[in-house]
């Protein structure tokens, strides 16, 4: 037993390993070996641990055996204890095996689960990555769908913004190369499609805006016309206020304030397609191309609009033509003001210069063709409205107004010719009878309207006017001429055109009215009543010339007081006054011709009668009746100065006729009885002259020039021939007092014809030795001295 013991220790010692030592150390130190056991089972290698434990146990047994030798009793006890430990160890081993088995069972399931879990983690990672990639693709596709929807709805701006978002934010992130390639290829195609669609919509807008330009222009010109009408009404109120204001100018002020925004608020037209197209082309990066496209197409439209059809009269198409141009440039103004830098001012200026040159050429050509002042005025008015309208938008319309100014004389020639026809008709169709006015309204229209009234008091009706219907008819024609002239001159190049209007007013009064009147006066078929009425009419037309000037000044906005000065009157007034004198001369010629028919002294007077006359000749009664008729009519019709001229001319002609008859070669001789008869006739005329002079009231006006004074030559001649001492004619003092109007030669000629007694067959021989009377001696002396004087 003792020999075997060392050998066993050696074996045990030789069998020790590092792990056995560690385990032995742990057990010796009383440390917990549970972790080692757990680890062995976890690793699935419990056998080495069991083997180690057995080694440790053997080692301990050897130690115990040694110890037992030393401490036997203690050893026995220890053996017993050890046997108990062994039992416990077996139980522990059994428990460990059982636990290991259960652990294996549980661990295997857990390992399967772990593998499944790890596989799930890998799948999850892949799925997450796939989802992320799918989301990018889905978002890109959703944007593509949205882009297609925008395109189908015509929302091209949103479509382009969506494509821009796809390009910048999604295209690089799309993992699918096929999808990425498809999108990359489709984007340029879609942009091209959008550009075509936008251009198509823009072309439709171009057609629409061209069609709408006429309405735009007509509306704008209509607004200008309304503003012009309001301005005219305001100026008329201002003029009336100034005329009623005795304090002078400055107390009443009116201004015309037309807001520039009025037309913009009324002229509503849609530029959205233009804005949208320009914006989309800007997004596409080709704004210049679109600007050029717009400018070229609008310029083509303008050139087309500037073409007129000669198949239709211009007077029927000018409003449409001009309204189209106005609308075109109103649109361009709105574009240049609202579209930023889209349209350049130089481009609009080029278009305007193109239009203005064409418009001027068309107007000059059409004006040259026109033969109606009404048509020319209608076109002119619309052109000035066009100019005023476009000037509000900053366009220079001077050349158009210059074209109108160049046609000014043409218009007035046509207007003058039209008025000439009307005036000729009014004068030739005149009845030359005083106008009968039965109603106050007619009085206002025919008399007061032209300041033709002779009194400020309203007359009783029926009223017999001193003029014929020709006067108010002509006044209306002249007034319409003034209105037509003002209408043409208004709103032209010259804002102050009163001097021009004055020139044209003088022209119609002198070259037309006065000329027609003179032609009528110089007509040989004119009668006394016609001549008298013409003379009366001229005097009223002369008076109306002041009204014409005031009316012209009123229409021109000139204060009426500035033309009421005598030096401001029309030149036509002087010409009409001259024509009035011509009419008076014509009247006097007719009256004198008629007087000559009545008198015929060589036929109605027996110049060598032997009987003393008991009274005037019968013809003188007819002369007086005729003069009475003429003077009565003249007093009703003619003004007082004309009445005076008619009376003076008639009696002076009678006086001249008497003297001329004595001087006539057809009167070879006459005697005292003939002189006495003529003296009776002359007294009748003198009495009539005095009665008419006083009854007509001329004595209060012409106090030193009575009608009788114009019979003085005949009276002095009759007095000389009736004088008992005719030789006193040679006495300067007596001649100056009693015979100052008689001419020496005339007296000498007449006295040579004077025979104091009629000659019979033997008269000269029978009376040769008869004593000459004192009167005969005196007459002979006068004849002798006159011969010596001559």
Shape: rod-shaped
| Biggest sheet, spatial arrangement of strands | 1-2
Rg estimate, integer Å: 68 Å
* Terminus-to-terminus distance: 230 Å
Oligomer: single chain
* Classification by helices and strands: mainly alpha
Main sheet: strands, sense, barrel:
2 strands, antiparallel
Family: Belongs to the SEC15 family.
Domain Exocyst complex subunit EXOC6/Sec15 C-terminal: 401-753
Organism: Camelina sativa (False flax)
Keywords: Coiled coil, Exocytosis, Transport
Which key phrases capture this entry?
about 800 residues; 2 strands; exocytosis; mainly alpha; EXOC6/Sec15_C_dom1; disordered N terminus; 29 helices
Protein model, in words:
With about 800 residues, the chain is mainly α. About 75% of the residues lie in helices and about 0% in strands. The protein contains 29 helices and two strands. Strands 1-2 form a two-stranded antiparallel sheet.
Topology, pairings included?
Blueprint: H1 4-14, H2 18-28, H3 34-43, H4 46-70, H5 72-152, H6 156-170, H7 177-244, H8 261-266, H9 272-283, H10 287-305, H11 314-338, H12 345-369, H13 373-391, H14 398-406, H15 408-428, E1 436-437, H16 440-446, E2 463-464, H17 470-489, H18 498-521, H19 528-555, H20 571-599, H21 601-604, H22 619-637, H23 640-663, H24 672-695, H25 712-722, H26 732-738, H27 744-753, H28 763-766, H29 774-789
Antiparallel strand pairs: 1-2
Helix pairs in contact: 1-4, 2-4, 3-4, 4-5, 5-6, 6-7, 7-9, 7-11, 7-13, 9-10, 10-12, 11-12, 11-13, 12-14, 13-14, 13-15, 15-17, 15-18, 17-18, 17-19, 18-19, 18-20, 19-20, 19-22, 20-22, 20-23, 22-23, 22-24, 23-24, 23-25, 24-25, 27-29
